[in-house]
Specification:
The protein is of the alpha+beta class. The protein has helices at 19-23, 35-43, 86-94, 125-141, 154-162, 183-187, 192-207, 222-236, and strands spanning 6-11, 53-55, 57-62, 65-70, 73-75, 102-105, 118-119, 147-149.
Length: 238
């Protein structure tokens, strides 16, 4: 596929993009990039101008066919990204410059590696570059302080770096199940001191009378959802 006759559009809502077309651009195993997830985040009010996430998704069409897309948001803060760039914001402030609003390509509230430059299966690498150039042009036109693409897979990291963007490195912790038979089997991999600390903390939870239950979606009541939202907001937005 050649990259001629491309038409770029900025969308203020995921609902403006046909779900079936968006889904055709996604590789498997990325539920947090599905149209239904991103659209629900917007229609529920979790992602909105009021919460500091203003959608401005990019689509690229070639002869009316969707060949590329990028989830994109205008941000007025850095919450919900799991990339803490407060030092950058402070540096801008000391220099007398506004850091917010900024642009980020990410899946809201989801620190998981995934596509950001979504492509049709037969699209060439030129579509990736075209998406990136549209995003950079949009940032410059509206005088955003910066453009961030977060949690990129290796091929997109390479492509964006070769296009002149700076690469940020951070630290994430991942847990892997090494065929543990149970929690005690997992604890056996700890040092004696750390194992004692974990067991002591678990014992104190039991002594405090705290219990836990696992509820599936169809078992969630309005009361439970309100409590979950309250705890989530205290954790991430306080």
């Amino acid at each position: 596929m050649t990259e001629a006759n491309l038409t770029a559009t900025i969308h203020s809502a995921m609902a403006d993009i046909p779900a079936d077309e968006w889904e055709c651009l996604l590789a498997p195993g990325q539920p947090h990039l599905k149209h239904s997830f991103l659209n629900t985040a917007e229609t529920s009010g979790s992602v909105s101008n009021e919460t500091g996430w203003q959608p401005c998704h990019i689509t690229l069409r070639q002869n009316e066919r969707l060949v590329g897309a990028m989830p994109l948001y205008q941000k007025s803060h850095s919450w919900g990204e799991f990339i803490f760039d407060w030092s950058w914001a402070q540096a801008y402030q000391r220099a007398g410059l506004p850091y917010y609003p900024k642009l980020i390509s990410a899946s809201p509230f989801t620190p998981a590696t995934s596509q950001k430059l979504l492509l049709a299966s037969d699209a060439g690498v030129g579509i990736q570059d075209a998406l990136l150039q549209v995003a950079i042009g949009f940032a410059k036109e509206h005088q955003f302080s910066s453009l961030h693409l977060q949690f990129l897979p290796e091929d997109e990291r390479t492509m964006t770096r070769e296009s002149g963007l700076l690469l940020r490195k951070d630290c994430q912790f991942h847990w892997f199940n090494r065929d543990y038979r149970d929690f005690s089997d997992f604890l056996a991999t700890f040092s004696s001191k750390k194992r004692k600390n974990v067991n002591r903390e678990r014992r104190r939870v039991r002594e405090a009378g705290i219990e836990h239950r696992i509820l599936r979606g169809d078992a969630l009541t309005e009361s439970v959802m309100r409590d979950a939202w309250r705890l989530c907001s205290y954790t991430f937005f306080a």
